[in-house]
Automatic annotation (TrEMBL):
Pfam families (alphabetical): Cupin_8
UniProt name for this protein: Cupin-like domain-containing protein
Coiled-coil stretches noted in the UniProt entry, renumbered to this chain: none
PROSITE patterns on file: JMJC
InterPro entries according to UniProt: Cupin_8, JmjC_dom
Organism from which the protein derives: Massilia consociata
Cross-referenced PANTHER family: HYPOXIA-INDUCIBLE FACTOR 1 ALPHA INHIBITOR-RELATED, HYPOXIA-INDUCIBLE FACTOR 1-ALPHA INHIBITOR
Boundaries of every JmjC domain copy: 120-277
Top-level taxon in the UniProt lineage: Bacteria
Length: 342
């Protein structure tokens, strides 16, 4: 039997220091590489409370609580904080619940310091809905971007590697977190699970990063050659570009993250995942020669499209090959729905 390959140590993510929430510009917010922003939100009142104690951070959050309910994930101590599938991927190893946020905070306080804690996690909850007024005291300037601000609260949890379509600015405001990132091209080495049955909406890597089974997932060793990582504490932030895979570990009994998502594309554009699902349905299982022909069409009209693609057609006659706007996209969507409902 050949010895298992050793995993390469991930490289540190590039860091920038000395910026404040008013200093963010396109050099950061439009980057195609991840960037660590040490101390970016260190002056936020939330961060100052967290640096005092977990109890102070908890009390600060409760100031804004207004009887809001949130989606939470609860797992037994045996899952060791790793929210994942069950053994045969027919279900999950946790229970999703709808619960009041103050009840979640009370449970986190109850188990703080305990040796065997259940896994408790509130993910992607809109701040203005559950904690109105939080943003008035914890300000950030994203240059006019239409960003969605969300909060993530839990204890020692692990979120499997996944990607997000929007760009992402993740700010650690309590506890510590470790991020491991991979560029989009590593998708084939991360062993991604089902696309249409996922723990929290995004497809995830099936590799346990703390105990990788290289016999089952040998190409993960190649993925690690391209990995980047950072460990962050209260006040630090990380810019994660669109489509970068990221694995997240929360390292303390009480962890809070605030993040902002935005897209660089117009709001009327559809999510590319719909196109991928449609291609799985209509292209993937064609005969090889036909699939290759369609790959050329996609290359020509989508992936390498430019001004010359339709330059030979009068501009008034280009239709879907011309510039698109909201009305044009709605017309295309209506045509597709009509064809699919045949």
């Amino acid at each position: 039997m050949l010895p298992a390959p050793e995993l390469a140590a991930p490289k540190p993510i590039r860091e920038v220091t000395g910026l404040t929430p008013r200093d963010l510009g396109p050099g950061i917010l439009a980057s195609t590489e991840p960037v660590v922003l040490r101390g970016l939100v260190s002056q936020w009142p939330m961060v100052q409370a967290a640096r005092a104690s977990a109890a102070a951070a908890d009390a600060y959050l409760r100031r804004f609580y207004r009887d809001a309910t949130v989606n939470a994930m609860l797992g037994a101590p045996e899952i060791e904080g790793r929210f994942f599938y069950n053994e045969d991927l027919s279900g999950f190893n946790f229970a999703p619940v709808r619960v009041r946020l103050d009840k979640v905070l009370a449970e986190l306080e109850r188990y703080r310091g305990a040796e065997h804690q259940p896994a408790i996690y509130v993910g992607s909850t809109t701040i203005d809905t559950c904690l109105p007024g939080f943003h008035d005291e914890n300000l950030i300037d994203l240059g006019g971007r239409d960003a969605l601000g969300s909060i993530w609260i839990g204890n020692r949890t692990r979120i499997a590697a996944h990607y997000d379509l929007p760009d992402n600015l993740a700010c650690v405001v309590a506890g510590r977190r470790r991020f491991t990132l991979f560029p989009p091209g590593q998708v084939g080495n991360l062993y991604i699970g089902p696309l249409d049955f996922t723990p929290a909406g995004q497809s995830i890597s099936l590799v346990d990063f703390l105990k990788p089974d290289l016999g089952r997932f040998p190409r993960f060793a190649t993925a690690m050659e391209h990995a980047q990582f950072v460990e962050m504490g209260p006040g630090d932030a990380l810019f994660i570009p669109s489509m970068w895979w990221h694995h997240i570990e929360a390292l303390e009994d009480f962890n809070v993250l605030v993040n902002y998502w935005w897209r660089q594309s117009p709001g009327y554009m559809d999510t590319p995942m719909n196109a991928l699902m449609h291609a799985l349905m209509s292209v993937r299982d064609l005969p090889p020669a036909q699939r290759k022909a369609w790959a050329e069409l996609f290359r020509h009209y989508v992936f390498e499209a430019g001004d010359e693609t339709s330059a030979h057609i009068p501009s008034a006659a280009r239709r879907v090959l011309g510039p698109l706007d909201g009305d044009a996209v709605r017309a295309i969507r209506a045509q597709l729905l009509k064809r699919m409902n045949r």
